[in-house]
Specification:
Blueprint: H1 4-12, H2 19-30, H3 36-49, H4 53-65, E1 80-84, H5 92-102, E2 107-111, H6 121-125, H7 137-147, E3 149-153, H8 160-172, H9 178-191, E4 196-203, H10 212-228, E5 232-239, E6 247-249, H11 251-261, H12 267-284, H13 291-297, H14 299-310, E7 324-329, E8 334-339, H15 341-353, E9 367-370, E10 377-378, E11 383-389, H16 395-402, E12 406-409, E13 420-424
Parallel strand pairs: 1-4, 2-3, 4-5
Antiparallel strand pairs: 5-13, 6-9, 7-11, 8-10, 8-12, 9-11
Helix pairs in contact: 1-3, 2-4, 3-8, 4-9, 5-11, 5-12, 5-14, 7-14, 9-10, 15-16
Length: 426
C-alpha cells in the first residue's frame, strides 16, 4: 500500500517514484489524505534530488488532470500561445497576441499578475478603462473567435493542484527548482488546450534565471514536456540584463505597446517580438505572413483594438497619468554601459507599479521611463530615467533601489547585445 512517508523517504534518498505512486499522491492530496506538511517535505526532497524525465512527465500529467482542460475545438484557426518567464519592461504579450492574430492564428494568451520586480501582463491591461481579464471558458473562446486573440486570467479550474503546490513552495524555499518550475508552467499551458507554444525564457539580472546554463536547462525541460504532451513547443532564450523597451510599469507599458503596434516600437522590444512571432507562426504552420508587414499596414493595431473592445475595454480612453515625476540624471559624461534591469524593476515596484504580496494593489500610473539605453552617449546632468508615482514620498525608496543601476564609461560605447540569444527545440 502506498503512503506519503515512504514516498518522501525514497525521494529524499535519491530514489524514483513510480507513475502509479505519483497519481496516488495527487489524488490523496486533493482529498486531504496527504497533509500540507507531508507534501512540503516531498517538495523539499525534489528540490534537492530532482525528478527524472519519466517522473516529471507523470507529475505534470497529474497536475493537468487535477482540473479541467479548455476545449478550443470551436476555434477554426490554428492555436498558438506564448509564455514568458518574466522580466522588467516585458510588454511583449500586448503586442504579440494581436500581431500573431493578424497573421491568421488564434492566440489563447492566459496570463498572470506581477510579483516583486517583474510586471504582470494582467496588471498592465487593467490600466485600460473597462478592460476585464476575468472570463469564463465560453467568453474566452468567444473573444478568440471575434478578435483572434484573448489575454485573460487562467481560470481556477485549470491545473488547480499547481496553485496549492506553488503556495507551499513559496513559503518553504522550494521555488527555485527546475522540474517544479517546468511542471508548474507547462501544466497550465497544456491544460489551456493550445496546439502550439513558444516559450520566452529570460536570462540575466532582471530574470528569474540569472545564468545562461539554468535558463537553457529550464527551456529544454519545458520544450520536452510540451512535446511529450502533444503540444508543438519551442523556446527562445532572450536577454534580461536591461529593461526591455523604454517603459517599466503598467499604463506606461500599455502606451509603449500601442506605439509599437503603430510602428514606433523600440528596437530591442521589436526584435524580441518579431523573433517570437516568427516562431509562433512556424509552429502553427502558417506560411507567407510577414509580422513586420502587419505592423506597417495597421492590421496588427486594429486586431489589438478589436481584442480590447471584445474584453470590455475602451482602446481610445486616456490612460492614467502619474501626478508626480522625478528625473534621474547622468553623474558623468560618457557612454551608458549598463542599466541594470533588476534595480530598475525594484525601483518601479517601490514607486507602486508592483506588489510584494499577491493581494496587494498596484498603481496603474506608477513606473519608470528609460530616457536613455545602453550604447547612448550621455552628457553630465542629462536625464537618464524619469520616475513616476502617485505619491512623491515613494521617490526616496525608488532612488535607493536604483543604487548603481546606471553605469557610464568614458572610453568607448559598449557593443550592442542581441536581445535574442538562442532557439531551443529540445
Amino acid at each position: 500500500m502506498t503512503d506519503a512517508v515512504s514516498l518522501i523517504q525514497r525521494k529524499r534518498d535519491g530514489g524514483t517514484l513510480a507513475d502509479a505512486e505519483i497519481r496516488w499522491l495527487f489524488t490523496a492530496y486533493a482529498a486531504n489524505e496527504v497533509a500540507d506538511e507531508q507534501m512540503s517535505a516531498l517538495l523539499m526532497a525534489i528540490f534537492f534530488q530532482g525528478l527524472d524525465q519519466q517522473e516529471l512527465r507523470t507529475w505534470t500529467a497529474a497536475m493537468i488532470d487535477s482540473g479541467d482542460r479548455l476545449d478550443l475545438s470551436q476555434v477554426t484557426r490554428p492555436t498558438v500561445d506564448k509564455h514568458s518567464t518574466g522580466g522588467v519592461g516585458d510588454k511583449v504579450s500586448l503586442i504579440l497576441a494581436p500581431l500573431v492574430a493578424a497573421c491568421g492564428a488564434a492566440v489563447p494568451q492566459l496570463s498572470g499578475r506581477g510579483l516583486g520586480h517583474t510586471g504582470g501582463t494582467l496588471d498592465k491591461l487593467d490600466a485600460i478603462p473597462g478592460f476585464t481579464s476575468s472570463l469564463s471558458p465560453e467568453q474566452t473562446i468567444a473573444v478568440m473567435r471575434q478578435a483572434g486573440a484573448v489575454i485573460a486570467a487562467a481560470g481556477s479550474g485549470l491545473a488547480p493542484a499547481d496553485r496549492r503546490l506553488y503556495a507551499l513552495r513559496d513559503v518553504t524555499g522550494t521555488v527555485e527548482s527546475i522540474p517544479l518550475i517546468a511542471s508548474s508552467i507547462m501544466s497550465k499551458k497544456i491544460a489551456e488546450g493550445t496546439e502550439s507554444l513558444v516559450l520566452d525564457v529570460k536570462v540575466g539580472t532582471g530574470a528569474f534565471m540569472k545564468s545562461y546554463d539554468q535558463a537553457k536547462q529550464l527551456a529544454q525541460t519545458m520544450v520536452t514536456l510540451g512535446r511529450e504532451h502533444g503540444v508543438r513547443t519551442a523556446a527562445l532564450l532572450t536577454r534580461m540584463d536591461q529593461p526591455l523597451g523604454n517603459a517599466v510599469g503598467n499604463a506606461v507599458e500599455v502606451e509603449e505597446s500601442v506605439q509599437a503596434l503603430q510602428g514606433h516600437g523600440p528596437e530591442d522590444l521589436m526584435r524580441v517580438t518579431y523573433a517570437l512571432a516568427e516562431q509562433m507562426l512556424s509552429l502553427a504552420g502558417i506560411r507567407g505572413e510577414d509580422p513586420r508587414e502587419k505592423i506597417a499596414s495597421g492590421q496588427a493595431y486594429e486586431a489589438y483594438r478589436t481584442m480590447i473592445r471584445a474584453q470590455g475595454g475602451d482602446p481610445d480612453a486616456p490612460l492614467p497619468k502619474a501626478p508626480h515625476t522625478k528625473v534621474v540624471t547622468a553623474a558623468t559624461t560618457g557612454w551608458l554601459a549598463n542599466l541594470d534591469a533588476l534595480k530598475v524593476g525594484v525601483a518601479a515596484w517601490r514607486l507602486g507599479a508592483g506588489r510584494a504580496r499577491k493581494e496587494d494593489p498596484v498603481s496603474a500610473a506608477a513606473g519608470v521611463m528609460c530616457l536613455a539605453k545602453p550604447g547612448d552617449r550621455l552628457e553630465k546632468g542629462q536625464p537618464v530615467l524619469e520616475l513616476r508615482a502617485d505619491d512623491e514620498r515613494r521617490f526616496a525608496g525608488a532612488e535607493q533601489a536604483l543604487g548603481t543601476a546606471i553605469v557610464i564609461q568614458a572610453d568607448q560605447p559598449p557593443p550592442p547585445p542581441d536581445p535574442v540569444i538562442e532557439r531551443i527545440e529540445g
